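Quick entry, no commentary yet.
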Amino acid sequence: MNTFSGKFEYLDLSGSAVQKGACSFTIDGADFRLIPETGPVLAMDLGDIDVYSPGDYRISLNLYTGNCIILSHLGKTFQSICHDFQEAYQRRVLQCLLLEDLEEIGRFDGFVDLDSSSDDFSGPAELRICRSNLVILPAATRGLHWRLSDIDRVDFDEAACRLELRSQAGRIIITKLAKRAREFMDCLKSAMQDLSENKAVILHSLFPFLSPDQFMQLAGMMKEGHAIEVSRMEAVHPRIKPVLIEKTVCPSMKPYFDLLEKRLAVEEGLFSGFKMIRPEGQNEMEDVGSNEISPARNENTELEEENHASSGEHREENDDDQQQVLHWFLFPLAVKPGLKAPARVVAWEATSHSGRATYFFRIPSAGAEGRTMNTAEAKDTVEPSIQRLNRALVLLNFRREPIYLSGDVLAAQLRYRHYAIACRNLPALRELRASYLGRAIHTTPEDWEKQVNDLLARA
């Protein structure tokens, strides 16, 4: 906890000072507190700052509401304050991007031009290369990231010190790395190669019977963190599906898997994915705020039920390799057994790691004019819907609480405050929560099936 003294101005949307004067302010973990000599005090989350901008012996804090706080007259401690504030702010930004547990391997300053379907900006930024992600923390807007497995192409012009990254989402041009351009390129290339090597190890351990040509064909289809239709994998080799299920669905999960497969809207409609997971450990349970009052016990009932359901299951997943890789399946379902109609619901089942419940999400069922889609239109809707769902789950690192906890709980409890801020800033998470139908906890297959029938009846 660091406390400093100076002066402040609190500006409204028009730039007029609502309050100003001498003050002290404290940076305490994820909290920022401002104590004026006179007038109301302010306490807020650092994640409520959209842009942190130091300069000319003053610090501007642009808030998500559009208001602004200006801190000035900070004396000889200005540089120290800027350093401490920026460290705390960027740490909180990563938490609110749900990236706080990434393993960083390189940090660089540069200039970024981003052209993508969801974000566009141009300006200086800090770039952090992590084992699985490239994180961009701009000076003048909110942070963002690209998964390394999403990058399709890297072009490096060493003479111009210019890198261009391309993915299906868009393009990033990175310049002004000065003498560190080659170092950045080598660091990025090394991280991407490590990711590819890990993928090769996983796929070879699953499918050692593939020929070299078949292996390269499959590896070209399957990206870490992506979902792929299992029928496409089977087209490479007919043994892929039975072996995949045998090796990635633990015995205690098999009854639930089989029941879901029988409910598929289309026989070949099953999707699968894998990811080298980041250690979850304390991610969901740690106190990410600094002064939390513990929530009431009944708010954790559902989580406790899910944890209890997994407590007696087989522990094959304690093997070191199993702890590093999560396998999952996505089932587009008909709402009634035996009804081969357009899928209305997708079930997500993690089959090789902790977390023992099946999660259900709605698929859009109407066209732009509000009419019900025909079978061909519905089929074209299913895969894009599944891919959006999958991307959101990967973004969460498969944390469950941001999916099923109510907006009121996320907003009211400090331990979940970073999730509430993530919902405000990440459209993919908002869409995921809006499509969430419910979950069926793995108690017994009979009880679980009753839960599923109740959920699908509401779809």
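second:
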Amino acid sequence: MNQLRRVIPATIFSIPFLLFLFVLVLVASYLLADNSISGLFSPTMFSTPRGFLLLVVAPLSLILFLCLFFYMLFSHTWHTGRSSRFGRKIFVLLAVLVTVTSLSITLIVGRFTGIAVSSGFDGDVPEALRAAREISDLYQNERKLAIERVSFRFFNGLAIVNQRAMRRDWMDELRVVDAYAAACQVYREDANVTPYGYEAVIETGDMDYFFPREELYTVRDGFFPPNADDRVLRYGKLVRYSNETYVCVYSSLIPTQLFARDALIRTVYEESRVINALDRIMPYLGLWIFFMFCLPPVMMAVLLGYVLVMHLVTPLGSAAEFSGLLVEGNRSFRLVPKGGDEAGVIAENLNRLAEKPAESEKRGDKKASLRL
């Protein structure tokens, strides 16, 4: 520790640097709390390295750093003679007062927040969201079942060949099976057809919902991957019949932003489950917030208070040392008064006392005692 003390300059223990460090710790704690609390109710926050880093590693590292810094500061003041018993008493009282006040305020705020969150997300909210998710799943499954019935009835070799021969309007028949039918497209693969190599066999329905011909090579059997802004649910199928390959695409209308709203329902449901699981620890949430995010600024305030207290009680230590020299009869030293407070008055009085000539001891004289 002595070697470490020689390497570290005394400037880092000065009041301006400690003020700068206090502001830095305050900003760091705020940023950690802002990024952590905002994702506290996320279902993946506790299972990701980022969540573990923000919620545990970073706050604990900051607390350990401040503990080490306080040890170095205390050691520095002790070995330089700036520490005094009177200053340590004031510091202990100040530290206890700051810690108890900060902890009480944090517990009150945490309790208020916990009650607000618990009242806003009671047990009925997850159940309602679960019911909404089940209704959404039921609706999508019914629509997909209707689309699969359309595919089974119309997307086969015999139906396509008959349609090429008879040229009937499929939309009326499609809407008997699926009332939300929007478009039906059937193409025959032919390398001689330009520009995309697909010959149109059937193109019926609303052209606004047609699948682009230049993207027909991406069609596979089954439903297309849904997008949040899709207005139709698409189903593709490759039909091979009589040495011919047909690419079929069927589009069925769905409510606007169905998939986006379904994703929102599922996200809110997962978050409500997390809040419901955290309901048991809500009474202790304020304590956890204090230790993780409020304790580092409090520790830094205590460190700064320690330096300020030792700086303020330094004149008292000098006055105590000077009074001891006067008692021993040494009057060659003087104190330099700083400020017009009580410490400055004591220094001036001791200087006047030192300037008086020593009185010869007389028998029967009473000794006067000066209590500081």
